[in-house]
């Protein structure tokens, strides 16, 4: 992650200062925090955020009760980490509602990456078993449509070529095409302008008033700095943005706009673009990004990866279980634990060709994972190996023991069934190499 590199280095300097002190005096705290403040400002983080974060870290650092297991420096790093994560808020997924028409519109200035991102997003959804229709929506520049069509065709994505000369009739036509073809998601690649202009805004507000959008995402180039936030504000006067996507996360931009986006606009960042390839789109997880910036994630995530990454041997036995159809709730639980530690199995699954009914976001949901674990923990060995023996009275016992409802157990069993079905879809994968390559 090139982006945030200098922020990360500068923060490290401040941390080093804290570490060099045994106990922190008031003066030490002030001095170290000054460095943190400068580091954040240099990274182009909005000054109001910097002020607020530093103030809160200072307050907490002063009132810290001594935590035996952490050094004063570690405590400050932890407080800073928590404050920065709080500024970014929780990760927020796309607002896709199954069995409804979901229109996702991408807006932003010229050359910020809308078209590229539109295709990446369609590809991302396709990997989750969701078909999305790409709709070119630039009515001035024919090359804009050609670019999207070319990207779509290269990557076998659905694209609406039958555009008209006006936005509203085009979208109407596209909607009836979707209905006819059973497509529930559209990604609308709007035109970019050098800067916000009236005609563009007028066109946008007209379309926005006539259709219901599940997401309106502001696409911004990470290298734009604070200017991006002003543009986002301009757009949000016309449309209700539901979030942002920052492209060129692979650049050496300072990244302060990314850290400021939620605070300034009140909207979450949903994805980041990490390169020019179709696969270079990542869900934006604030905690992971911040732990990389603050640095304390490095070791932890390495350790995690080492312990987690389904070893080749494990993968082989998993593959065998899939093929023999002996995959049970014990395995399910293990895989869920892996998913929780991120990467691993989830990324294997998400890189597989579309599997209908696979809802990865549900599997990635923290709450759902916690519940699932509690339920499986409450089962006997036999029940885990043979879920089909779990009848009403067993469900009652498990529910009581795990503090969940019978309904939760039914949901889990259903999820497990779907999961198993999906896994059978993997049977065609002949070799472990194929799985490992997919990661
Ligand atoms: N390195 C890198 N390049 C990107 C990324 N996203 C987009 N690009 C590049 O940025 C350039 C502009 O991207 P487009 O998708 O055409 O931008 P746009 O917003 O659709 O542009 P207009 O339609 O003219 O408004 C292209 O060369 C892309 O390859 C990214 O995440 N990383
Ligand atoms: Mg474009």
List the bound ligands: guanosine-5'-triphosphate, magnesium ion
Named CATH architecture of the largest domain: 3-Layer(aba) Sandwich
Oligomer: single chain
CATH class of the largest domain: Alpha Beta
Going by helix content, strand content and strand pairing, the class is alpha/beta
Overall geometry comes to: flat
Report the radius of gyration as a whole number of Å: 24 Å
Describe the main β-sheet briefly: 8 strands, mixed
Intertermini distance: 19 Å
| Average of pLDDT | 84
Describe the structure.
The protein has an eight-stranded mixed β-sheet with strand order 3-2-4-1-5-6-7-8, with helices on both faces. The model is unreliable at 298-310, 342-359 and 429-439 (pLDDT under 50). By secondary structure, the protein is an alpha/beta fold. 58% of the residues lie in helices and 9% in strands. The chain folds into three domains: 5-88, Four Helix Bundle (Hemerythrin (Met), subunit A); 102-284, Rossmann fold; 309-438, Signal recognition particle, SRP54 subunit, M-domain (434 Repressor (Amino-terminal Domain)), CATH 1.10.260.30. β7 (269-273) and β8 (281-283) form a beta hairpin. α14 (329-340) packs antiparallel against α17. The protein contains 21 helices and eight strands. Guanosine-5'-triphosphate binds next to α5.
